Amino acid sequence: MSLHIRLRLRRAGFTLDFNEHLPGQGVTALFGRSGSGKTTLLRCLAGFEPEAAGEICINGEYWQQERQSRPTHQRELGYVFQEASLFAHLTVAGNLRYAWRRVPAANRRITQAEAIDWLGLGELLRRYPDQLSGGQRQRVAIARAMLGSPQLLLMDEPLAALDSASKAEIMPYLQRLPQQLQMPILYVSHTLEEVAQLADHLVLLEHGRCLGQGALNEMLTRLDLPLASAASASAVVQAQVASFDADYHLLSVVTAAGSLQVPAPARPAGDQVRVRIAARDLLLAQAPLVGISALNSLPVTVLALTADTDPAFTLVRLEHAGQPLLARITRKSAEQMQLAAGTELQAIVKTASLAG
């Protein structure tokens, strides 16, 4: 499965010029500042922008070739907007049935029972949209989009209109979707925290163009991209839950080359999780340290260094068991330690958090 997207759209003061091959599975995040072209790209894929020229090929099937384009209703896609936009006169069950009935029986890939189970909607089926919380409405909207049996699911900042409690409520459902759906998901966001929790692949957009794309952690730690200089710059390490210390409320997780202790609620042993390590929370030492408050230390090798946007700091890209990490240290420290590519160090993690 693969997506090939080559699109160009001119507007007053803005041009979208996108030409990339994207993964045909998992969650690909479209990330960038407001006005970078994220939503415009989704609208082009959905057929909402008739002036867009180019090519859209989804799993070998062309939705557009130059200006020969299928209308929206002939594109097998699901679209989840910032607002749920449910039918107010229908119950949750009615909204789901509406989407399911629009798909010919032979083309249905997902049953109503599966969508209800995956999004936890069983107790909500008789309610009307005005009887639901914001998070519940978005869960219904996602289930309705899924029941259209799309080849491609487009999600345009589905959490943007929700408060913190509603975001926390819906996030576990979003995290499980890639394992449940055999279809690619394009997810628009301008929040790195969301991207760290959900994305497998990241596309960075700026002024309508792609600055780069790749696996999530590779992109987050690339020194030639602005993500590494952001105040929230971080790396995301894949790990597995080993145990939970109820006395100290610490989760022990195992990475490719060791273990970390992370303040977090209990999780079942064996759960796959993501650990987010902020660049500002990584200290570098030339030898293991003792008698310090930090609980975690990782052996790392320097891959590269570059100047930060703040002249007082240096960005250091590191490698830990094949996974890149990022540290932001003072330029004076980097010079005193004589850091260079290939230097072996200990990375002291002041704090880490679960990203998903």
TrEMBL record:
Every ABC transporter domain range: 7-232
Highest taxon above the source species: Bacteria
Keyword annotations from UniProtKB, A to Z: ATP-binding, Cell inner membrane, Cell membrane, Membrane, Molybdenum, Nucleotide-binding, Translocase, Transport
Domain Mop: 291-356
InterPro entries on file: AAA+_ATPase (IPR003593), ABC_transporter-like_ATP-bd (IPR003439), ABC_transporter-like_CS (IPR017871), Mo/tungstate-bd_C_term_dom (IPR008995), ModC_ABC_ATP-bd (IPR011868), Molybdenum_import_ModC (IPR050334), Mop_domain (IPR004606), P-loop_NTPase (IPR027417)
Keyword Oxidoreductase included in the entry's annotation: no
UniProt keyword annotation of Membrane present: yes
Record-level GO cellular component terms: membrane
Gene3D superfamilies listed in its UniProt record: 2.40.50.100, P-loop containing nucleotide triphosphate hydrolases
GO molecular function: ABC-type transporter activity; ATP binding; ATP hydrolysis activity; molybdate ion transmembrane transporter activity
Protein name: Molybdate transport system ATP-binding protein
Species name: Halopseudomonas salegens
Source lineage: Bacteria, Pseudomonadati, Pseudomonadota, Gammaproteobacteria, Pseudomonadales
